[in-house]
Design a protein that fits this description.
The radius of gyration is 30 Å and the shape is elongated. The chain has a domain of 239 residues: Ferric Hydroxamate Uptake Protein, Chain A, domain 1, CATH 2.170.130. The protein has a 22-stranded antiparallel β-barrel. With 1002 residues, the protein is mainly beta. Helices cover 7% and strands 41% of the residues. The N terminus is likely disordered.
């Protein structure tokens, strides 16, 4: 296949030598009850009972849960909703982020949860349209504990901490080596495995910790789960497209290329044909079977931590992290073209793809099926000399696979690679016994490289007209200049030129189901003639290789952060003790770079005709590829300066207050912000405490939101269409006011907490809701407001086949990043645990959960039209809205027994069901055939309850054996009316899994 190869240079190679991390090492030191929580304050030596609502998950907690993966853990976290982690290429928020995982506290969006490693910022991903920190590349096995601050924290940490903070803290007390490994059985795949090795100890005066780990996740195909593929009548949205192959055609052109005549071979190859004989006769074919539920992933991390006293008062700490992921997107053999060929291609320039009357494939097709297929043919079935066929709503390859990819499904296999680098240096100087000055610098970089498969539209049009192939003598417009149609007909398919057959007759069989095609042109039949590849009935791989191309992108985010903090005791005494404080400043430099390979770079190929004619011009410049789009390189940066102050006030022995404020300046383009926060906690009795707080938070527009241009794939009008998501220089910052109030009980063996929280969120930086824009313009009829002057602004956002407004004719949609509607959300977090000492055993039980009271989203207006009326997102699927899937209840309960060297745990996980708020009209014109009222499956997405069990055995040899059984009853994820027939942002697709692990300390 043609690939204009481009690969960005690696980040400094010397960095990798000093880094490390390890996967699931279950024997990390247990955090004792007196451990000081560091997240939520910058004050060194802050009291343990701080007012901030922080949840701590220790390495021991993770080990007792069976050492879950990062994705497994965050999907079960009660306070997190709408998790980007499992393969979900059909959700616009996950596209181009394959192999990554993120935390989405409160469902406000993962970009609003600040993720830290040892209190230091990590660069976000830049591949997709949601900038998030990839926690898959954090050194999971080197973690001592995870601290989750479930409250806004901009006053302490600055931008991005709107929903909360998740701080991964590595071990500092390991003495010696620790090696571990495990294997997880997953039905239908080759399973997953991890390995890790770490060492900690003293080297002279220095404390050193280094770790390394590797994780492998095996491919799990959609075809490996019976629930993942459903018939069209069960879920018309379950991976079916009206723009596939076999495709749909207009055989006379009198309707401008918008009449649909389904390929007559549609049903024989496994497609669903909707309305034969009508103008909306569509062949709907399934693309889902070419994708995976789990993409193959290979990942490793390296982490190093060195702490060195330089004098009695001065200490140096250096840490370094390198993480790398290789994964592959398995996807459709080709995408449908949404850009028309230019006049530089043979028969191009009409705004539509054209199959000329002399094409052997058209002649053969019309002889087979005649006028009943829509052909303008004579009595013998031959197309009239003036007849043309227009492929509309189609893609070159689908059910027959792509011959350029050597795998069982002949699906496109497209790599995605990620690299994360972080280096931190920190100096701490004790000015006095209780006063420390700390200065630190952190460099963090996330580099993402990914490829996509697409088609050169002009080269594809050439192939339809018989001038395809790399060695075609008449490929360029100059070589065809002045030739008549009769002369073109005589030259087509000669002198190295080849035809491409777009009809089902070119497909031998459905490569997924094995269904043979009875009308395959390579078989003996009364109509086939000239069956050699050059004759245009059987498609040769070299023909495909000429127009199918690999596009390449690289996204890179680099961040420099400098901190200077003076912290300690102020010398001021209150009845409860000394006032502690922190005072300091921060500088952040963020840079976002996106670079394109030649194939999809407008500076190389600005127009569809550029691949055939370097002098080709066009307005607008749309590039040469048909679906994924082209752009120019982007390089944007922003600088943020901040000063902050914080004080912890022990008002009495039982009452502690914490106040903080931060001023940040984002520069003239964005402005500045001042964010105060106040928290208080009070011990009402020896066992009962209350806490509460209020504050404001702020997030400036990230650099990529101002200039980025990304193409996402979205279902519109019965087929996946390209949506250009464009940056916006006029974005305003987003902000929120947060409130919380909590009750804590500590009776020794019984502990419990109940916290109420609320976020009043304004001006969220989001992508415009595609589903709302489409519904507003087209309504239930598919063209309700076309031509209405009030909707002119919305209508100009679309590119239509034949220039005729209608949902079925959409080629592309242009959308922007914008400041969305206000959101108000509130809810309750609850936790309780009890421990019983039975002599020979200790039995512990507990529960943890979140109940969301409200998630009120205001009216969303685009181009003066309300495209998303105000709604409450709680308990809704929220497909293609500005909200994420948001179950009202989410939590787990557990019981575990500690029997000498043995630990046994049972855990029940519960995720509440949701409602798909879309109406039956999403099925479009096919309702008349399917009786949509009967297609109700997925309207209510059921709850998801699973039972897990884990066991550990600690041997005297410092060996630990473990077994973890998840989803013991092999519960399928609840059915949802989505592409993958389940909600990948909420439920797990794996079913029952079994993991065995071993670790050895020495």
């Amino acid at each position: 296949m043609k690939a204009h190869l481009y690969r960005a240079g690696a980040a400094p190679a010397a960095l990798a030598a000093m880094l490390l991390s390890a996967p699931a090492a279950a024997q990390a030191a247990v955090a004792d009850e007196g451990q000081i929580v560091v997240t939520g304050t910058l004050i060194r030596g802050a009291v343990e009972q701080a007012p901030a609502p922080v949840e701590v998950i220790t390495a021991e907690d993770l080990a007792l849960q069976g050492s879950p993966t990062a994705v497994d853990l965050i999907k079960l976290l009660p306070g997190s909703a709408g998790v980007l982690g499992d393969a979900a290429q059909f959700d616009t928020r996950s596209q181009f982020n394959e192999g990554t995982a993120s935390i989405n506290l409160r469902g406000l969006g993962p970009q609003r949860t600040l993720v830290l490693l040892n209190g230091n910022r990590l660069a976000a991903t830049g591949g997709g349209n949601v900038p998030t920190v990839d926690i898959n590349l954090i050194p999971w096995g080197a973690i001592d504990r995870i601290e989750i601050l479930k409250d806004g924290a901009a006053a302490t940490y600055g931008s991005d901490a709107i929903a909360g903070v998740v701080n991964f803290i590595t071990r500092t007390d390991q003495d010696g080596f620790l090696a571990s490994g495990d294997y997880r059985y997953v039905r239908g795949s080759d399973g997953d495995w991890t390995g890790a090795l770490s060492w900690g100890g003293d080297l002279g005066p220095a404390r050193v910790f280094v770790a390394g780990g590797y994780q492998h996740r095996s491919e799990l195909a959609v075809t490996d789960r019976d629930w993942a593929l459903q018939p069209y009548g069960v879920n018309p949205q379950g991976g079916f497209s009206g723009g596939g192959s076999p495709g749909n055609f207009d055989f006379n052109g009198s309707t401008g290329g918008i009449r649909f005549d389904a390929d007559e071979g549609c049903e024989a190859l496994g497609g669903f044909r909707s309305l034969p004989g009508s103008t909306a006769d569509l062949c709907n074919t399934n693309y889902l079977a070419f994708s995976n539920i789990v993409e193959p992933e290979d990942r490793f991390q390296l982490f190093a931590d060195i702490e060195l006293p330089l004098s009695d008062r001065l200490g140096l700490r250096l840490t370094g992290l390198y993480g790398h992921t290789d994964t592959v997107l398995t996807t459709s053999p080709s995408y449908l073209p949404t850009i028309a060929p230019s006049g530089n291609a043979a028969f191009g320039g009409s705004g539509l793809f054209v199959i000329p009357s002399y094409a052997p494939a058209l002649i053969d097709y019309c002889r087979r099926y005649g006028a009943a297929a829509g052909c303008d043919a004579d009595a013998a079935g031959n197309p009239q000399s003036s007849a043309l066929a227009y492929p509309v709503r189609f893609r070159p390859l689908l059910l027959g696979g792509n011959p350029l990819f050597d795998n069982s499904r002949m699906a496109a296999k497209l790599p995605r690679n990620s690299d994360l680098y972080q280096v931190t240096g920190e100096l701490a100087y004790d000015l006095a016994p209780a006063l420390t000055l700390t200065g630190g610098v952190t460099f963090s970089e996330y580099d993402r490289y990914f490829e996509g498969g697409d088609n050169f539209v002009d080269l594809f049009q050439n192939a339809l007209a018989g001038f395809g192939g790399e060695n075609c003598a008449y490929a360029t417009p100059q070589s065809r200049a002045g030739l008549t149609q009769a002369q073109l007909a005589a030259l087509a398919g000669t002198d190295g030129c080849q035809f491409f057959n777009p009809f089902s007759t070119a497909t031998q069989a459905n490569v997924v189901t094995g269904q043979a095609n009875p009308e395959y042109a390579g078989a003996s039949n009364p109509f086939g003639f000239g069956l050699a590849p050059g004759a245009g009935l059987i498609n040769d791989a070299s023909t495909v290789d000429d127009f199918f191309t690999i596009i390449q992108r690289r996204a890179n985010i680099r961040q420099w952060v400098g901190n200077l903090v003076l912290s300690g005791e102020s010398g001021v005494q209150l009845p409860g003790g000394a006032v502690r404080f922190a005072l300091g400043g921060q500088y952040r430099d963020d840079r976002y770079v996106r670079e394109y390979g030649a194939t999809n770079n407008l500076d190389v190929y600005p127009c569809p005709g550029s691949v055939l004619n370097p002098a080709a011009t066009c307005n607008p410049e749309v590039g040469p590829v048909g679906f994924l789009g082209s752009n120019r390189n982007v390089d944007v940066a922003s600088d943020v300066w901040a000063v902050f102050a914080e004080a912890q006030l022990p008002i009495t022995d039982r009452i502690t207050a914490q106040i903080a404020a931060r001023y940040e300046d984002y520069g003239a383009g964005v402005g500045s912000t001042f964010d105060p926060q106040a928290r208080i906690s009070a011990e009402l009795t020896d066992w009962l405490s209350v806490r509460g707080g209020v504050g404001t938070t702020f997030r400036g527009p990230p650099p990529q939101s101002t200039l980025s241009d990304l193409v996402i794939l979205t279902f519109i009008g019965g087929a996946f269409r390209a949506v250009d998501t464009l940056g916006n220089r006029d974005l305003d910052p987003e902000s929120a006011t947060t409130y919380n109030a909590g009750l804590l009980i500590d009776r020794g063996r019984f502990r419990a907490s109940l916290d109420w929280w609320r976020y009043d969120f304004s001006g969220g930086i989001e992508n415009e809701p595609v589903n709302g824009i489409v519904a507003a313009l087209f309504g239930a009829t598919g063209s309700a407001n076309c031509g209405d002057p009030a909707y002119a602004g919305l209508q100009t956002r679309f590119t239509f086949s034949g220039g005729i407004c209608g949902a079925s004719n959409v080629q592309r949609l242009r959308s922007y990043t914008f400041n969305s509607a206000d959101v108000r959300t509130s809810g309750l977090d609850f936790q309780a645990s009890y421990e019983a000492d039975l002599g020979a055993a200790v039995v512990q039980t507990g529960v943890s959960g979140t109940y969301v009271i409200e998630y009120e989203v205001g009216d969303v207006v685009v181009e003066g039209i309300m495209v998303q009326p105000a709604f409450d997102a709680v308990g809704k699927l929220n497909y293609q809205t500005t909200a994420y899937p948001l179950p009202q209840w989410k939590g787990y309960g557990w019981v575990q027994g500690l029997f000498g060297p043995h630990a046994l745990r049972l855990q029940v996980n519960y995720i509440d069901g949701t409602t798909d708020q879309r109406g039956a009209d999403v099925f479009g014109p096919n309702c008349a055939v399917l009786a949509c009222a009967a297609v109700t499956g997925g309207k209510q997405v059921g709850s998801f309850t699973t039972l897990d069990a884990s066991w550990r055995w600690s041997l005297p040899t410092r060996t630990i054996l473990s077994v973890a059984l998840t989803n013991l009853f092999d519960t399928d994820p609840p059915f949802a009316r989505l592409d993958q027939n389940y909600d990948p942002l909420t439920a797990s697709p794996l079913g029952f899994t079994a993991k065995v692990g071993v670790s050895q300390a020495f």
